[in-house]
TrEMBL record:
<dbReference type="Pfam" id="PF00005">
    <property type="entry name" value="ABC_tran"/>
</dbReference>
<dbReference type="GO" id="GO:0022857">
    <property type="term" value="F:transmembrane transporter activity"/>
</dbReference>
<keyword id="KW-0547">Nucleotide-binding</keyword>
<dbReference type="Pfam" id="PF08402">
    <property type="entry name" value="TOBE_2"/>
</dbReference>
<dbReference type="InterPro" id="IPR027417">
    <property type="entry name" value="P-loop_NTPase"/>
</dbReference>
<dbReference type="InterPro" id="IPR050093">
    <property type="entry name" value="ABC_SmlMolc_Importer"/>
</dbReference>
<dbReference type="InterPro" id="IPR013611">
    <property type="entry name" value="Transp-assoc_OB_typ2"/>
</dbReference>
<protein>
    <submittedName>
        <fullName>ABC transporter ATP-binding protein</fullName>
    </submittedName>
</protein>
<dbReference type="GO" id="GO:0015697">
    <property type="term" value="P:quaternary ammonium group transport"/>
</dbReference>
<dbReference type="GO" id="GO:0043190">
    <property type="term" value="C:ATP-binding cassette (ABC) transporter complex"/>
</dbReference>
<comment type="similarity">
    <text>Belongs to the ABC transporter superfamily.</text>
</comment>
<dbReference type="InterPro" id="IPR003439">
    <property type="entry name" value="ABC_transporter-like_ATP-bd"/>
</dbReference>
<keyword id="KW-0067">ATP-binding</keyword>
<dbReference type="GO" id="GO:0005524">
    <property type="term" value="F:ATP binding"/>
</dbReference>
<dbReference type="InterPro" id="IPR017871">
    <property type="entry name" value="ABC_transporter-like_CS"/>
</dbReference>
<dbReference type="GO" id="GO:0016887">
    <property type="term" value="F:ATP hydrolysis activity"/>
</dbReference>
<dbReference type="InterPro" id="IPR003593">
    <property type="entry name" value="AAA+_ATPase"/>
</dbReference>
């Protein structure tokens, strides 16, 4: 059964004994959205994903897909498909038979299931490998088999649990591009659990940042990066300093901070250089500025080397007060 439309989580809760893993979260994911759940280990993102898939029971709350409440439906009856981190391919079956397996279990005839399997295999460039066994494939090829096997059921929503974590950095970039292309071509929602901020920023239309079983912030990648709601979001997304200035907690992006005393209307500080890291196009500078603590500045390479700083030196830094963004909580 394929369920089209929006996904809504209403006070969704998961308890394991006395431990609350997911704490009454509310979320709406519009149809056709690439949504990334992001957060540290133990924040509740994978438990949320498994409840949506039907692989975990719901302690309280509801899961609405389209017009249907699917909270108590079996996984095969809710219009979702899940691609597992481990891939879980059948070692004794060819690529084609792995992809077609769920259709076989549903009683679809050989001719029709081969046709459907080859259609999704073509989407992920697997046709040349259809007669190979999983052991004869690279890690990236095995991942594409797992992806095709999930897509062959024609789901309304595809769920991906850490799908890129086992890949090397180069292959991760290639598969990231492939996932985004597939999601756009298929027009269905992808829900993707990840620890990687760069992964979420590159892929998502909607980023959902979780902490301690709750949603800390949900918004576009631009929203959560430029306008973090809390100090946790600012720190977790990276690229921000979280400081207490004039009695308020603010974030200041590291790439907005510059070396030197600055103009009179700028926010200026001095401190000891504690870190200098060259990263090609920029240099990351860490300044210990007294009570303000350690402040990270990302300086363009040519600006840094015009007047380089060395460990142990006392140097001035500054930024525009307009680049200070007030946070709701530390």
């Amino acid at each position: 059964m394929k369920t089209e439309g929006n996904l809504e989580l209403v006070k969704l809760t998961k308890r394991y004994g006395a431990t609350t893993a997911v704490d009454a979260i509310d979320l709406r994911v519009p149809a056709g959205t690439y949504c990334c759940f992001l957060g540290p280990s133990g924040c509740g993102k994978s438990s949320t994903m498994r409840m949506i898939a039907g692989h975990e029971s719901v302690s309280a709350g509801d899961i609405i897909l389209g017009a249907d409440n699917v909270t108590d439906r079996a996984p095969a009856q809710r219009g979702t498909a899940m691609m597992f981190q481990s891939y879980a391919l059948f070692p004794h079956l060819t690529v084609l038979d792995n992809v077609a397996f769920s259709l076989k279990m549903k009683g679809v005839g050989r001719t029709e299931r081969v046709r459907k399997a080859r259609a999704v295999m073509e989407l992920v460039d697997l046709i040349p490998f259809e007669s190979r066994m999983p052991a004869q494939l690279s890690g990236g090829q095995q991942q594409r088999v797992a992806l095709a096997r999930a897509l062959v059921t024609d789901p309304g929503i595809l769920l991906l649990d850490e799908p890129l974590s086992a890949l090397d950095p180069f292959l991760r970039l290639r598969v990231r591009t492939e996932l985004k292309r597939l999601q756009r071509e298929l027009g269905i929602s992808f829900l993707h659990v990840t620890h990687g901020q760069d992964e979420a920023m590159a892929l998502a239309d909607l980023v959902v940042i979780m902490k301690d079983g709750r949603i800390e912030q949900a918004g576009t990648p631009q929203d959560v990066f430029h306008r973090p709601a809390t100090g946790f979001v600012a720190r977790f997304m990276g690229g921000h300093n979280v400081l207490t200035l004039d009695g308020r907690t603010v974030s200041v992006r590291a790439d907005r901070i510059r070396m030197g005393p600055g103009a009179a209307d700028m926010r200026a500080m001095t401190g000891e250089v504690r870190g200098v890291e060259y990263a090609g196009a920029h240099v990351t500078l860490v300044i210990h500025a007294g009570e303000a603590g350690e402040i990270t500045a990302v300086i363009p390479e040519e600006q840094f080397y015009a007047e380089p700083a060395e460990l142990g030196q006392t140097r001035a830094i500054h930024w525009s007060r307009g680049d200070e963004f007030t946070l709701q909580a530390a």
